[in-house]
Amino acid sequence: MRKRKTALTYLERLKALQEATLDHSPSIGHEIRNLEQMPSLDVRVKKILGILDHPRRPIGNMLFFVMYDIESNKVRYNVVKYLQRKGCTRIQKSIFLADLSSEAYQSIRNDLSEIQSLYDNHDSIIICPISTDLLQNMKIIGQNIDIDIIMKSRNTLFF
Q1: Cα–Cα distance measured from residue 39 to residue 78, given in angstroms and rounded to the nearest whole number
Q2: If you ran DSSP here, which 8-state letter would residue 72 be given?
Q3: 126 and 70 in contact (C-beta within 8 Å)?
Q4: b/e string for 91-101 if b means 16 or more Cβ within 10 A?
């Protein structure tokens, strides 16, 4: 009778890749996706601000940004997929926003630290907690988005 294999965790898979020379290993059955498939800035902003408007935000959740500069396409792809599975929202090509429990925050922090230590690199990953007040004061510079309408903070003038 054949012994069943247990599924590898994300970190175990990355360690196996690292042991098999991560930089020179062949593609893992997928190609790097085109970032043009990312939702529009307007959709991403509405999703971000929806976090703040959610009537029942769990007590104990914390808001935080994850920002990275990762050279390897393969590592970057895996980090993106990992953050998305964990429930983070991609707001820029290399910036995610999360509204997760403190335990999930610690888990992400620990996992990303371990990923960083797996191979020789010049990468950087920043995890930055943020308050809802600071997030509500966010200003968007660039594409024309009416942030006041999205934030529902438009002033009404009566005559």
Answers
A1: 19
A2: -
A3: no
A4: beebebbbbbe
